[in-house]
Amino acid sequence: MTHTEFDTPHGPARAELHCAAEGRAALLLGHGAGGGIDAPDLVAACRAATEAGVHVALVEQPYRVAGRRAPAPAKQLDAAWLAVAEQLGEHWFDGLPLVFGGRSSGSRVACRTAADGQAVAVLCLAFPVHPPGKPDKTRQPELDAVEVPTLVVQGERDPFGQPEAGHHREIVRLPGDHSLKADVEGLSRAVTEWLGRVLRPLDV
């Protein structure tokens, strides 16, 4: 495990790098709005990915590195994420396919930046379809805009709503709520199986 910092247009970001024995791809995972990279679902996804032969970077947004809990505006989050992805792609994961992902707010960032960052797939953990109790304020279009294979792992009782399946998009529903803590083993299995499937055509 290695820690490194990256310059972004909105201050330094930080990444915790976990290397697989033989990296076939790299998965970048972002945290939720008020949480960090130690969230149980992120830890489980990280472990599952490295065991599947995928390097992982757990990315901390600049606002978290600066010690703030309130998230930055979406455009700032996206710009910082893309800056980190570019530097990781050039200096750490050169030549490897990049998978974007994250939990909650981090999964929204992954969806919004997938095209610009040339991600080959997107992993969403607890995608917040809408604010609790406000189904009219849907973020489903952010998912619908992703044109690469996407896996959404969602708690069956998530107050942030349930995403719809779609073209290239799979939904795995697990027992529990937005934290996805109730079935981390199920989450790990889903991530391992999906990564193996979507990356197989890219293996040389």
UniProtKB/TrEMBL annotation:
Q: List, for all copies, the residue spans of the domain called KANL3/Tex30 alpha/beta hydrolase-like.
A: 24-165
The record, for InterPro entries, names: AB_hydrolase_fold, KANL3/Tex30_Abhydrolase, NSL3/Tex30
Protein origin, superkingdom = Bacteria
Signal peptide as annotated in the record = none
Name one matching Pfam family: Abhydrolase_11
Q: What Gene3D superfamilies does its record include?
A: alpha/beta hydrolase
- Protein name stated in the entry: KANL3/Tex30 alpha/beta hydrolase-like domain-containing protein
